[in-house]
Amino acid sequence: MADRMTRADLERSLIALGSTLEYPPAPPIAPAVTARLLAERAGARRPAFPGLALWPRRRVLLLAVAGVLLLAGTAVAARLAIGAIEIRLIPTPTAPSPTAVESGPALGERVTLEQARARVAFPLVLPAGLGPPAEVHVAESAFSARVVVLVWRADPSHPGIEGTPWSTILMELPGSTEPLAYKDILAETGLRAVRVGNHDAFWVSGPHQLTLITPSGEERFTVTGNVLLWEQDGTTLRLETALPKAQAIALAETIG
Amino acid sequence: MTDRVEGRPLEEAGLIELAKDGDVQAYGELVTRYRELAFRTAFLITRSAADAEDAAQDGFVKAYYALERFRARDSFRPWILRIVSNEAKNRLRSARRREGLALRAAQDHRSGDAAPSPEAVVLEVETKEALLHALAGLKENDRLIIAYRYFLELSEAETARALGIRPGTVKSRLSRALDRLRDRLTTERDAREPLEATDG
């Protein structure tokens, strides 16, 4: 029969073992935790969907959890916001079907590129290689900030976003400390932290809703395309395409 | 083993106060500070990275809502570990699965690391594996008290709070856990060396 180790030997071995244990790398955790807390608070304070406020807190948490599990891997700062766009997690779309982001009048007043440049306080940026946009719109948003929406048509080499004639929708918002828009993502929406050049960005894939805060209230849009959100040089950019992540990021990196 | 309760107490207390007032950002900062420890603790219990991440995340969310019950004079570290470890145990129970031995010890020191400690050199690979195996066979609470004291280096007082037991019982519980670990090591070694055991 083999001898039992002495307690001192065992303790020494355990300490040595502890110093060589391999743990998987710890995920960021904080972004998902704060997102859940903010989502809950948004639900409690100013519900985007009134029904939410009436639900027991535990149920809301449970639903927020389902949405947030997709956040695993997010590595961006704790507050889930990029520039003027704040991302909120919502359980299910209970609101009446909102307008598609593509419907003309909802995008704001149609203008030329030059007019748009003259009407916003930030420099407009365009992607390289897509040519001039098919349409340019300027919309009023909260705090007298104007938002510019540029669209490019789909063609054989630029696949269309489902249900729209467009291949690319680029939204440009001034940098702001107050959110000018909310992105409400659902449980089935994918949310990933990515990088566009040197900038932290979010990649949102799957159906979600975009809410623009306007002087007359909130305008909600349904989004079917894949979206990149990031901030560069003080401008918040939102790029919607039908492209997969790597190609979308490559396109985004040409914007300047 | 040192007691680390005093680590940046003012700053941390400030963050906790802000979080109690509903400052989610401040709470996020606390999460960032303790995420590694929370994740490792959860991993030592669940032995699955995915479950450990979920347990840590759920634990931190629950802890936020329980902050009112956190007393300023206590240390945050064992308090959060207790919540996270409970989450991890719940997950383990509901999952009812053991995915073999996910815990591994490094075989070689990565290049660029400081020279291995004398203890690490002494510890033979064989012993490491035997220890890991024996640990995996222990009950959760035994494994956890050993992990807190020797792997995560919590003080006795912190271990007591993290386990929710009286400080006076840490020593005796640890002794019993170590005894059971030694029993397992002996049994398993005998099982591996049947001939030697019978002949000897």
List keywords for this structure.
heterodimer, A: alpha+beta, six-stranded mixed sheet, 15 strands, elongated, B: 200 residues
How are the SSEs placed, and which strands pair?
The complex is a heterodimer of chains A (about 260) and B (about 200).
Chain A lengths: L6 H14 E2 L7 H16 L4 H5 L2 H12 L12 E2 L2 E5 L9 E2 L8 E3 L1 H7 L15 E6 L5 E8 L12 E9 L6 E5 L4 E7 L2 E7 L2 E7 L2 E7 L2 E7 L2 E7 L3 H8 L4
Parallel strand pairs in A: 3-9, 4-13
Antiparallel strand pairs in A: 2-3, 5-6, 6-7, 7-8, 8-15, 9-12, 10-11, 11-14, 12-13, 14-15
Chain B lengths: L8 H12 L3 H23 L2 H18 L9 H20 L8 E2 L12 H5 L2 H12 L3 H12 L4 H8 L6 H23 L1 H6 L1
The gist of it:
Chain A is 24% helix and 33% strand. With 256 residues, chain A is α+β, with helices and mostly antiparallel strands.
Task: Tell me what you see in this structure.
The complex is a heterodimer of chains A (256) and B (200). In chain A, the strands form two sheets. An eight-stranded antiparallel beta sheet of chain A has the order 5-6-7-8-15-14-11-10. Chain A has a six-stranded mixed beta sheet with strand order 2-3-9-12-13-4. With 256 residues, chain A is α+β, with helices and mostly antiparallel strands. In chain A, helix 2 packs across helix 4. Chain A has six helices and 15 strands. The relative contact order of chain A is 0.15. Chain B has 200 residues and is mainly alpha-helical. Helices cover 70% and strands 1% of the residues of chain B. In chain B, helix 3 packs across helix 4 and helix 7 packs across helix 9. The longest helix of chain B is centred in the first third of the chain and has 23 residues. The radius of gyration of chain B is 19 Å and the shape is elongated. The N and C termini of chain B lie far apart (39 Å). The N terminus and C terminus of chain B are likely disordered. Chains A and B meet through helix 1, strand 1, helix 2 and helix 4 of A and helix 2, helix 3, strand 1, helix 5 and helix 6 of B. Strand 1 of chain A pairs antiparallel with strand 1 of chain B.
